[in-house]
Amino acid sequence: MKTEPVHIRPFIYLQCFLLARLIESSSLGSASPLLISSTVGNQAVLPCSWRKRLESMTSTCYVQWARVTGTVFERRGSDKWEADAFENRLEVPEETLRSGNCSLIIKDVQIGDTGTYESFMVVKLTDQQTKVFIQGIKLLVFDHKSRQTLAPGEDLLLELHTSHSLAVSFQHRDKSESSDLWVKGQQNNSPRLVYDPLKNQLTLKNLSYSDEGTYKVLDKQGLAISTMKLTIEERTKALKVQQPVEKDAASDAADRSSRSALLSASLLLVSFRFSHLFW
Ligand SMILES: *[C@@H]1O[C@H](CO)[C@@H](O)[C@H](O)[C@H]1NC(C)=O
Ligand SMILES: *[C@@H]1O[C@H](CO)[C@@H](O)[C@H](O)[C@H]1NC(C)=O
């Protein structure tokens, strides 16, 4: 940890305090939260900044990120603290913070991370600590959704997306209930199912018609990380599906109207340009 000589500390705190004033008067501290969306397993960055102008300044500025349930992350110089529930997935790099960027990085983002986050700057003048609100962010985390068509005898590759994937459930096309196909750490009973922990993937080999249905990857709270609908079709039939399908009248009409909207928009653009030229 880089430590400043003791005698300049009050000055630094004062700088932080002035900085806080700047934040307060800038547009950053807006009342409505900014919306950020991400997909499970990806990295999300919740933006936060305190004035670019002060980038070169070395200071012991102190950032705090909180949810309604309480503080989730804090950094003050090289010291940091993170709420246990996040299991080492949060970070505000020290270097980045020093340059005025207090953005919170959430690694391997989970459905349960959805919610509102608020950033604060903690400033200290002699022994008094004050929290200055910087920015509210609303994080939306989406699950993965997909469809696949495979032929009997082929293999199905199932991405588990995150290290927090705990189980895979399967619901047969004609059934209303689903059953566990795979549970992490448990002996799996199907010789056709292969788990690759390095790639974080499952392979279901030698598919048959009875494998047709919905596969869900679930986290420890039972929330769906991904939903995949599998259709089994003979190759020749599958090829036919990929050939152009006749469009229904409604989508055709929609197509036409969007084309004409595009046309009139470009006409508008042209006449706008003309009016610029002529006036
Ligand atoms: C702030 O830092 C984050 C990562 O820590 C980065 O993704 C983002 O681009 C940075 N923002 C600016 C304005 O540099
Ligand atoms: C694949 O499954 C079928 C039955 O669905 C079976 O007859 C065939 O032997 C299996 N092939 C392999 C390579 O296991």
UniProtKB/TrEMBL annotation:
Gene Ontology CC: external side of plasma membrane
Chief location: membrane
GO biological process, one term: negative regulation of T cell proliferation
Membrane topology: Single-pass type I membrane protein
Keywords annotated in UniProt: Cell membrane, Disulfide bond, Glycoprotein, Immunoglobulin domain, Membrane, Receptor, Signal, Transmembrane, Transmembrane helix
Subcellular location as annotated: Cell membrane
Coiled-coil residues: none
Domain (Immunoglobulin): residue spans on this chain: 33-142, 145-233
Gene3D superfamilies hit by this protein: Immunoglobulins (2.60.40.10)
The name this protein goes by in its record: Uncharacterized LOC115050766
Name of encoding gene: igldcp
